[in-house]
Design brief:
Length: about 425
């Protein structure tokens, strides 16, 4: 084949001399084995790859920096905590804001009422009040907090309050010594008060509980006042309207000299009825006289005269109902004015009764929804001091010291390696 012929005519080029391996002679052509020195007949000894580690300057610097940055502060902190730090006693208390809500008859039958539910908004207010300056000032007025919390200041200036601390410093120290935990879901508040004496811690907790109860009572009173303010205003306006209506009716009676125009009109109507009855009798008598006597009888003239007088009196009495006299109004006007004033008085009386009932209902509802502070854990009195928590403080301080030392060392060597 052409390719095979090309390979036969063009053999592969020879390898360079440096890359070619010399031929291995046959066993007979190698000759005698050379004799090795005596040292080569000794057993082979393996020498170590590196010499043993030796302490260098940077190692000593690391150890010294660790001792100065970590061990020395921990020793100083342990000495202060166990030798100079004053023991602190804790008093625990737990309470919640409850609302006393009554039940109607339907709720009692259906079992839908709630005898005492908590108010989350009031619990939030109380939680904020426990950390406020107002409470600190109130407790300070009843219990000398500065004297109690600054008693060990000469020996323990780190954990004790300064004797000449300002109100702001006292409030900040209050945040440290009075720990408050609050569960918004249930409305339960737990409080821990610390002091350097167990009796002082318990006393402070009792004062705080008392002041908190007063604040909740003030909130309840304010809520009741807010609930009844509108009803009281409506009642006041109704009272003023009723007094004005009665005063105008009294002035009307004094002016017209009529206590009850309806009764007066009834009396006038009775008088007119009587006169009409007399007129009828006189007219009958006149007819009888005319039938029995002559027209010249003087009794006829007298009868006619009596009839004219009675008719004039009837007409005069009837005029009182329509036309007003010079010194007094007509009976129609008098009765109309009296009825208007009477209607206004009756309306004012009805409005007053309704406003009074609304106020009574608002007061009853406000009392039914009164708030109070329920303590489920009374302020306790400790037997042993649990604070300051010395092991925990040393552990946290050690972790921070080691972390700062490690970060500082890494930064130092990274900067040195960059040079």
């Amino acid at each position: 084949m052409p390719h095979t012929a090309a390979l036969a005519t063009n053999p592969a080029p020879a390898a360079p001399a440096l890359l070619r391996r010399p031929p291995i002679p046959a066993a007979k052509e190698r000759g005698p084995r050379p004799v090795l020195p005596e040292a080569f007949h000794k057993p082979h000894v393996v020498r170590p790859a590196a010499s043993p580690a030796r302490s260098k300057r940077r190692h000593r610097r690391l150890i010294a920096s660790f001792a100065l940055s970590v061990l020395a502060p921990l020793l100083l902190a342990a000495g202060y905590l166990y030798d100079r730090a004053a023991d602190q006693f804790a008093s625990d208390a737990g309470f919640a804001v409850r609302k006393e809500e009554g039940m109607s008859g339907i709720d009692l039958l259906g079992g839908l009422g709630d005898l005492g539910g908590g108010d989350t908004a009031d619990a939030d207010i109380l939680h904020a009040y426990l950390q406020s300056q107002d409470l600190v000032t109130a407790v300070e007025a009843e219990f000398d907090l500065r004297a109690v919390w600054s008693a060990p200041h000469a020996r323990d200036p780190l954990f004790a309050l300064e004797p000449e601390a300002s109100l702001e410093d006292l409030v900040d120290y209050w945040q440290r010594m009075v720990r408050v935990s609050y569960d918004p879901g249930s409305g339960l508040i737990e409080m821990q008060v610390r002091a350097f004496e167990a009796a002082d811690a318990q006393h402070i907790a009792e004062v705080v509980l008392s002041r908190s109860g007063e604040m909740i009572n003030a909130l309840s009173d304010q809520a009741q006042e807010d609930a009844t303010r509108h009803a009281r205003r409506e009642l006041s306006e109704a009272e003023a309207r009723l007094q004005d209506a009665r005063a105008r009716l009294t002035r009307f009676r004094a002016t017209t000299r009529v206590v009850d125009p309806a009764a007066d009109v009834q009396s006038q109507m009775g008088l007119i009825d009587t006169l009409q009855q007399q007129l009828a009798d006189e007219m009958i008598k006149l007819d009888l006289l005319r039938n029995r006597t002559r027209d010249t009888d003087p009794r006829i003239d007298q009868a006619e005269r009596r009839i004219e007088i009675i008719e004039g009196r009837i007409e005069a009495e009837r005029q009182k109902f329509g036309n007003a006299a010079q010194d007094r109004a007509s009976y129609a006007e008098t009765v109309s004015e009296f009825e208007r004033l009477t209607a206004e008085r009756e309306f004012a009386e009805g409005a007053y009764v309704a406003a009074r009932a609304a106020l009574d209902a608002a007061v009853a509802e406000a009392r039914r929804q009164s708030r109070y502070l329920a303590a489920f854990i009374a302020p306790t009195r400790a037997e042993t001091a649990r604070f300051p928590d010395r092991p925990l403080i040393l552990l946290v301080a050690g972790l921070f010291a080691v972390l700062l030392w490690a970060i500082g060392t890494l930064v130092f060597y990274s900067l040195r390696d960059r040079r």
